[in-house]
TrEMBL record:
SUPFAM superfamilies for the chain: SGNH hydrolase
A molecular function GO annotation: hydrolase activity, acting on ester bonds
Organism the protein comes from: Aquirufa rosea
Protein known as: T9SS type A sorting domain-containing protein
Record Pfam families: Por_Secre_tail, SASA
Amino acid sequence: MKKSLLALLIGMCIQTAQAQVKISYPHLRQVFQRNNLNEATFSVLGNYTGTVDQVQAKLIPVEAGQGQPLDWFTLDAKPKAGLFQGSIKVQGGWYQLLVRTLVNQQVKDSTLLSRVGVGENFIISGQSNAEGTFRRPNDTEATDDRVIAANFFNYFKEYNPSTNNKYIGEYSLDYPMTEFRKIDSTVTIGPMGLSNFYWPILGDSLVKKYNVPVCFINTAWLGTGIKNWAESSRGLLTASQWAPEIYYPKGFPYANLKRAVEVFGQKNGVRAILWHQGENDAFHKTSYADYKNYLLEVITTLRKHTGMDVPWIIAEASSVSVQLSDGSCTPTLWSTDIVQAQKDVVSTSGVPFLFSGPNTEDVEIPRKSDCIHFSRGAYLTLADLWYQKISKQLDAIKTPIIPKAMPNIQIACSPNYELSVDLSTNFKKVTWLNASSAKIGTQLKNQLLGTGDYSAILEDDLGNQFTVPNFSLNTFPIPAKPRISVLGDTLMCEGKSVELKALGSGVNYSWSNGFQGLSQTIKTTGSFQVKTTDANGCISDYSNKVQVQTFPQPVASITTFGPYMLKLNTTQLDPQINYQWELNGVSLGEKSNLLRVRSSGKYALTLSKRYTNTLTCLSAKAEFDYTLPADGGMSIFPNPASNEVNIECINSLAGAEFLLYNWDGRLALQGKISQDGAFNLNLAGIYSGKYQLVLKSEGQVFNKSLIVVK
C-alpha cells in the first residue's frame, strides 16, 4: 500500500512540474474551520490547459489516521475557459488534495496540493503576554506538522529579525493568504507575533487531542491598554499610557484584529479569539466599569464591523511588575477589578458567545525574564492552562465562524468574443484586477475579460473585503460557421417548399429570417443564412447564403366567349402560358386561350408556365359545366336587326360562305368570312322584311330566319 501510494505521489509531482493543471485555491497549509460535526466545506479553484471534459478531486490523509480519505469525485463537471471550480465537504483532518483533468474518461493532467486541513483556527489578541516578546534565535516551535501560522509581519521590522517571514510593511493591512507555515523556530505568527511564545506548545496539545490541524493568527500589541483598543475601534488616534505624547497609528491596535477577522475569518473560518490583556490596565489602575465597558465595546464593535459574531475566550489576567533601570522589578500588582470585569463580561453582560479563558494571575510570580513577561519556564504551564480552557469550551462554542465559499464564477461568450463573467455571490461590490494588480472593472455581472490572469476583491455592505486569488482565463475559440444543407429545390413554384438544415456542432442555431432551430421549411422567396451558438455562448459568423426563389403559379379560370366558345378569363394574356383543355377528363388538342365547343359536358383548363429549363409551374385545374345551346349550331343577334347582325357558329367561320335570301327566295346578299370568331354582317342596302340566312361551314349548312327593320 505504501509503495503504491508513493508511486502515485511521485507521478503526481512529475505532472505538477509540467504545470498543465494548477490549484489556485486553497493555499498550501490553509486550515478551514470545522463545525461541531467535525466537518467543513471549502472551495477549490484552479486552472488547466487545453480542452477537458471534467475535473476530479481526491483527498488523502497526509499520514494514516489524520483524516477520512475521499476518493475521486467530480469537482467540476463543466469547466470553462481554462478555469475549474467546485467545493469539497470533508471530515476534520490533514490532507493532500489531488486534482486531475479528464478527456473522454481518460486522465489528461493532474497535480496536488501537499497540505490542506480542516481543523481549528484561533486569532490571538491582547497585549504582549499574548503577542510574545522579542524573538530569539532558538524560538519555540511545534513538533507536529499540523500546527500552523500565517507567517508574515507588519510591525517594526527590527523587532523581529527572522528572515523567514513575509514582511508586508509597517501597519500594512494587505494580509497575504499564501504564507501559511508549520510553526518552527523561524516562523512568525503574523501579523504581530514578536515571538512564537507558548502558542506552538498549545498547538501541539490541541492537535494531539483532536487529531486536526490548528492555525494561529496573532494580533496582540505590546503595551496596549483596553482604552487603546476601544478608542481605535472608533477610528480614533489613541495615546500610549506609558508615553502619553506618543499615539498609535490611527485605527490601531484594533485595525489588525478587525482585518484578521475580515481576511482569515471569512476565508479560513475561526473558532474563537483568544484574548489575554489586562496587565497594562492593572498598572494604570483602570476601573472595573471602564475596563468592562471598553472590552464590551471592542467586542460589539468588532462584530458590527465584520458582521461576524466571532466567539471570544477571555483570559483572566492583571498581574504586572515592571523592570526598573537597575534591573530590579517592582512588586507584583494584581487588580481584582480587572479580573472581575473580565469575568463579568463573560458571565453577566448578556453578550453571546463569550467564554472564560485561563486565569494566569499566579503564573510565574515573579517573572524571570523582564519582570512582566513570561519566561520559557512558564510556557508549558501557560499552554496547559489555555489547553484546559479551550478543550472545555470547544463543544460549548456551537457556532464557530465557518469559511465562506468562493463566488461561483460563471463564464459566457460575449458578442465580440471576450469573456462575459458573472460572479454569483452575496457581496455587493467587486473590483477586478489584472496581472499587474491594476483595476480593470467593477461589474458583478457581464464583466468583459480577455485571455489573461486576474483576481478580484469583493466587498460587502459593511466594507469588508473578500479576495478571489489569482486565476487565469482563456477566451473561447470562435465556432466555425455552419453550412446549410438544402433538401429540395431552391427554385420552386408558389405553394411548394424546401427544407434548409444547418450543419455544424453548435447548440443553438439562429437564421437570418429570425427562425430559431436546426432546420426550417421555406415557402417564400428570400436569402437565408444561419449562425450557431456553441455551448460556451459564442456565436459563429453567418454561413454562406442560400437563395430561395418562388415563382407564381398561373391562375386558370374559364368563361364563355359567345355561345360556342370558352376562354381563359383574363384581361391580359401571358405569351409564356401554355394551355391544356379537357372535356370530361379527356385531353383536347386545343392549345390556345380559346376553345370552340361542340358538345355539352364538363370542361377543364390547366395552365402551365415554364420559368427555367427545370421549373414549370402548373395552375390548379379550372372546371366549367357547359350546355350546348338548342339553336341548331348557329346564333344570330340581334334579331330583328337594323344595320348589322352578329353571326356565330358551332363550326369555324374561317372560309365560311353566307347567303341572305328575301322572303320570295331571291338572293339579297352573299359573301365569305375570312376569319373565325363572331362575324358582323353589314345590312346596309337591305330593306325591311323577312329574310333567310344560310351559312355554309366545314361541309355543313346552317339556316336562320332574320327580320330586318329599318
